[in-house]
C-alpha cells in the first residue's frame, strides 16, 4: 500500500492555499524535466568475487551498512533478517522503536504493508489446492457483493497478479482510529471502475487483494483474519504476527512507533483497509520464519503443497494476454519477479504511511531476506534506497552473476528509439474521478538519444533518470544496471504500453495531457487571473485617489465584466480547494462530499465564465474601448479557457466523487 504524505502546515489557511497552488503549478511545470545522463558501456557486468555466505560475514556486512544509513537519512529504526535452509544467518535490530525502546528483531512489531499480500495469496492458493476455488473462474461465483465488470470477468488469477483492470482507489486505505467498515462493507461501497480488459494491463490494486481476501471469507465461512492466522501465520511458526486491528493486548506493547523521520513525533497506529492488502504486523524474526515456511526449509511446516508452491513461483499470465509485456518481469501468484544477477528472486514490497518493508525469496538457494523500517527518513527516497541497499546489495555480494542480456548488434536504432519516445502515465490511476489530477504529477518522460538509447525520466521506481539500451525490438535494458523495459505496440506500430515492473505499467498520453504543457497553461492562467483580481480594486483606488474619470460603459458591458470577475474568482478558489483536498486525501485523509461538490460548482462557474468573457471582448470591441481594455479582456478570456482546459483534462468536472 503506497500513499503520499503531507508534513506540517503553515499557520494561515489563505497562505496555505496559495502555497499549495504554487506547489502544484511548479510540480507540473518542472517535475517532468530531468538531467541528462552519460551512456556507459551497456554490456552485462561480469560476476564479482563472492563473500562467504555465513552468519559472521552477513552480520558484519549489515552492521556496517544499516546503522550508517539510519544516521544519514534520519530513519528512526530498522530490522533485518536473513535465513537459508531454515537457519538464521542474521537477525538484526537497529535504532529506536520508540522512546527508550531499541528495536528488538525478535519482539518488535512492524507494519509490513503490502507484504501482507503474500500471506493473502498463500491463503487463496491453499483453497485452490484443496479444490475449493478455481483460479480461472469468474470471481463473482464466490462473492456476495456487486462489483461491476464491464470490461470482462475477473478471475482469482487476475486478482493475484494485479491484472483485474480496476482503477486506483485510495479512500479509507488508512485510518488512525478503530472502527470503520467490515471487509465486505468496504468492498461493496463504491467499488472502483474497471478501466481495462482483465489480463492485459498489470496495474497494482489494493482493492483486488481485498476481493481475494473476501473470497477466503466466503469459501471458508470465517473471517479472513481468523483463517489466515490459523492456516498461514501459526503454521509458519510466527509467534508475534497478526492481521488483527487493533492489535491484541499482548502485541500492542511490542508494536514499534511509526515516524516520518527520527526528528518527528511518533504517529498514531495505522488501521489499514482492506485488511488482506496491508494489515499484517510482524517482527523481523517472524518474517524470516514465514520465508522459511514458504521455501520448504528443513524443520518448517510447509504452507503449500509442492505443486501449489511451484504454481506460486510461476508467472500468472503469458503473452496471449500481456503481449510484449510478457518479455519483462511478470507477476507470479502473489509475488513479483525481482530476479537479479541471473538468479530467480521473488519478492514483495510494502509501504504504509510510516513503515516500509521488503521481502525477497530465492527459491533455488532457499534463502529469504526481509528488511523493514519504521519511518521514511528526511528524503523522499531514503527508505527505498536503504531497502535496495540491503536486498540488491545482498545479491551482489553473495550471489553475483551477469546483469542480463546484452544488446544485439542491430538493436538500438535511433528510429526504434524515436518510436518509443513520449510522455507516459501510470496505469495505476484514477480514470473516472477528480483524483485523476494526481496522475499528472507522476508522468514519465522517455526521450530518444542520438545513439539509439532511451533516457527515461524519472526511471521506474526511482527519482533519477536512467538510460536504456535495446536488447531486441520491444525489450530494453538499463545501461549499467539490470532493470528491463518492455514495449507493447499495436498493429500500426504505435506504443500502447510500457512495462517496467511485474504489476506496474505506463500508458502513453497525448499532447493535451502532457503535464509540462498543462503546467505552463495553468501557471500562465493563474498569473493572469490573480493579476486581474488584484488590478480591479487597485485600479479603482488609483482612479479615486487621482480623480481619474472613466467614461460610462453600457450596462450590458458592466454586467459582463462583473460576471467575468466572479468567474475568475471562482476558478481560483476552486483550484486552490482542489489542491488542498487532493493533498489531504493523499495524506491520507477524508474530505466531506459537500466540500468536493462545492468545488465542482465553483469550477463550473469558472467554466461558464469563458463564454461570458468572450462576450465581454465583443462588447469592448464594439464600444471602441481602446487597446489596453481589449487586451486585458482577451487575456482574461484566454486565462479562463486555460483553467477550463486543465479542469477538464485533470478530471475535476467528472461526476463521480469517489476516491
Automatic annotation (TrEMBL):
It comes from the Bacteria. Keywords: Hydrolase, Membrane, Transmembrane, Transmembrane helix. Its EC number is 3.1.1.103. Residues 63-383 form the Beta-lactamase-related domain. The chain crosses the membrane at residues 515-542, 563-586, 601-622, 634-654. Pfam families: Beta-lactamase. InterPro entries: AmpC-like, Beta-lactam-related, Beta-lactam/transpept-like. One of its GO terms (molecular function) is hydrolase activity. This is Serine hydrolase domain-containing protein. It comes from Pseudonocardia tropica. The lineage of its organism: Bacteria, Bacillati, Actinomycetota, Actinomycetes, Pseudonocardiales.
